[in-house]
Specification:
130 residues, alpha/beta, Rossmann fold, four-stranded parallel β-sheet, 6 helices, globular
Length: 130
Amino acid sequence: MNFEIIFQKHKILDKLFNNAVSAISFFQLLENNTRIKTLALPDVILLDINMPKMNGFSFFEEFKHLDFCNKNDIQVYLLSSSMCPNDILRAQKETYCAGYITKPLTVDKLERLLNEPVVLKYQEHFKKII
């Protein structure tokens, strides 16, 4: 099973950005346009820690400042080739981080991410998928 089949199975529309700055700009545009906000907000974001222009943790700093009502409904997962305990601990402390996934992103990892609901209780919202 490949990623496209999983996307179809879970009715996922994919919107790709090549850097976090473009993604934040997209959210800022949505923040100011209430008519399209609910149509365009993603359910899941896969965010690489090491990206050009803005890293994953800097993305979270900007994301916190965005003001739209259903921001908490978006599950943001950090992707990294690192299994560094400090990165995982830092990700766990991020309010809007739903989990940490080590590369490579496989079909199995994506299936687990989409099939296991996030429990939104204190300190239980975070999934570590390695």
